[in-house]
Amino acid sequence: MAYLIDIIIFQAAILIAVYCISTVLPLDFRFPGWSYTQCGVELPDQLAKRIDAGWPLRSGEVRINQICEVSQIGSEKQRYLQTGVSRQTDNGTSGQWLTIPVDADDNPVIGPVFVYSRVISGIVNIAFLAFAFAYFSANGRRTIGKKLLGLRVQSVDGKSPGFGTEFRREILKFSPYLFFIAAAFAFSLFPVFPTEDFDALLRMSRDGYTLLNNGAATFNIILGIAALIWWFLPFIFWRGQTFYDRICACKVVKS
């Protein structure tokens, strides 16, 4: 609970600072998870006809076309085409989907997806959070969340850890998230689609082609399970230490 209180406070402060900076400097801040998506923009007639020709409907199928706009603090809107079909089966509704970025003229953009700005923003965000947590936990200080719940971080010998130890502890705390960012960057270096021909890709989607994103999704599930183990398993057998506490010879105590 103390962590949730602190993460809300520190992340809100960072986002406010980023918003103020972005109104002055033309920087591209794209913090993962802090975005707003709005779908429903109608497709141009030419693109809709192209989709109908490349992915004709079969009996019982319903076409769904839309363009989604993703807004993030300090960043220009990103636009994505979502096209697919849905059908009723004995087990409910099923569907096939194809999601592709589009340019300002709503033309599909196919190729490798690079996420340099998101990687940099994600790392900077974690660095700021780790610094804030470390500063307000080192040398006998406490974060607001820990004050409210009467908690304190101290070394196993009963002393107050310095800033260096606390910063290392916080980096280790966020290490699953940093690994997730690195994995996302690694996946972005490879083409998501097997062809840059949009019409050919439509035909493949019609025939049941599964995007490589499924492999990324499986990896994300595995990483998510590992992160849950890293963050929450120690609380099941709570003795005042998480895994990163043990590495840094620290513990959380009531005070």
Order of helices and strands: HEHEEEHHEHHHHHE
What profile does the largest beta sheet have?
4 strands, antiparallel
Helix content: 40-55%
Strand residue content: 15-25%
Number of helices: 9
- Give the low-confidence spans: none
> Shape, please?
elongated
Structural class: alpha+beta
Radius of gyration: 23 Å
Number of structurally distinct domains:
2
Distance between the termini: 16 Å
Number of strands: 6
Tell me, rounded to a whole number, the average pLDDT: 80
Strand order of the largest sheet: 1-2-3-4
Pick out its properties.
21% strand; elongated; 255 residues; alpha+beta; 4-stranded antiparallel beta sheet; 6 strands
Would you mind describing this structure in some detail?
The chain has helices spanning 2-22, 45-54, 116-135, 144-149, 163-173, 175-188, 198-206, 213-236, 243-247; strands at 35-41, 61-72, 75-89, 92-101, 151-155, 250-254. It is an alpha+beta fold. The chain has 2 domains: 2-30 and 112-190 and 212-254, no CATH class; 34-107, no CATH class. Residues 118-187 form the RDD domain. It is a multi-pass membrane protein. Keywords: Membrane, Transmembrane, Transmembrane helix.
